[in-house]
Amino acid sequence: xxxxxxxxxxxxxxxxxxxSPQDPAxxxxxxxxxxxxxxxxxxxxxxxxxxxxxxxxxxxxxxAQQHCxxxxxxxxxxxxxxxxxxxxxx
Length: 90
What we know:
Elements: E1 2-8, H1 9-18, H2 24-29, E2 33-34, E3 47-53, H3 54-67, H4 72-84
Antiparallel strand pairs: 1-3, 2-3
Helix pairs in contact: 3-4
């Protein structure tokens, strides 16, 4: 399952600063794509989109629990949206 997580730039920077390069969540964060199209317009200039697997999103969630609780809501939202996109198994 692909998960898209929108993080505030400040939360992204805080997590990246707090995590060790050996932490799996650090690798996930390094793969973000910036919303460059609106780079000079707020609020988009303050956003980072992280696209990852569910496993990677959970690693990011665990890291945020310890280092940046403010990011938890955004990670949870991305996980919920990804779960809704799964086809039903009727």
